[in-house]
Specification:
Strands 1-2 form a two-stranded antiparallel sheet. The chain has 91 residues and is of the alpha+beta class. The protein starts with 20 loop residues before the first helix and ends with a helix. The chain folds into two domains: 36 residues, no CATH class; 36 residues, no CATH class. The radius of gyration is 15 Å and the shape is globular.
Length: 91
């Protein structure tokens, strides 16, 4: 199995105040795993400047439906878990 080199994923969050509670919970989990300031998370604050430079591992897949290609976010973890993902993939 061929290993793919890491890339950069850029996410933009528009109107976070419109997210429902489950989506906010998932966003908080994502941000925490990527090293976002835990004090800001504890106060339900999202600071776009604090989001710059966050690092982590994202597992993605592609799906084709009705002639359109979609990118799926299948999972994510801390950057320190990258080695574990590589071992899991090889095994």
């Amino acid at each position: 199995m061929r290993s793919k080199s890491p890339g950069v994923l850029r996410l933009s969050l528009f109107r976070p105040h419109l997210l429902h509670s489950q989506a906010l919970w998932k966003l908080s989990w994502f941000l925490r795993d990527f090293g976002y300031d835990t004090d800001l998370l504890a106060h339900d604050e999202i600071d776009d400047k604090a989001m710059a430079g966050l690092r982590g591992v994202v597992k993605i897949s592609h799906n084709n439906l009705n002639g359109r290609s979609y990118l799926n976010l299948d999972g994510f973890a801390q950057a320190t878990d990258w080695h574990d993902f590589q071992l899991e993939k090889a095994g």
